[in-house]
Amino acid sequence: MIDVTRSTTPRRGFIGRLAAAMALGVTGITPLRLEAQAEAPRTTGANPDFEAWLNKITGKHKMVFDAPEPNSGMPVVWPRVWLNTNNENYATTDAQNSAVIVLRHGAIPIAMQDAMWAKYKLGEVFKLNDGTAPATRNTFAKPILLPGTGVEQLLVKGVLIGVCNVALTVYSGAVAQNMNLDAAQIKQDWIANLLPGIVVVPSGVLAVSRAQEKGCAYCFAG
Fold it and tell me: What is the pTM assigned to this prediction?
């Protein structure tokens, strides 16, 4: 078991996570190799799927929820609170507003189906419990605290959810090293088993910045 979410650096930063992963036995993955693995294929233009996702941000009110950590489920609670209070105060509907959630760094398991949590022991890897034991299912998929929360119901209501490609690459590489499996196959498995409706974005930070360029206000959710 590896813990790729703990480090002694401020706010458990990305570089700190890489150092922590290597210190905990992922010695074959150097920062340069991680960087090479995470680097997106070079293209001459924008990713059309990503641009199509961004072009859905058309609401009267717009907010991007930046989630680098699961934060007790707040990335899938606060968007519902924001939608509810917009609707109550400004006589809008969910469909008239644009809520965007960007899952990056340690929040990427929120995007995955239960089978991936069980197969790759994501509860142990990311230190996420279901009760007192490491989670073997995605507890963020269903409602948390309030009706209408959780990934599944937010997606039904038109909330846009993106998951960071760079984080998927880095963390699948760390898990592969620990399990002596092929990193590319694990990443492919993760992407194939995202909760339906979630889109892989080139990077979480790019998605956050581009959502703001589309008019979204910013909320730190993790």
Answer: 0.84
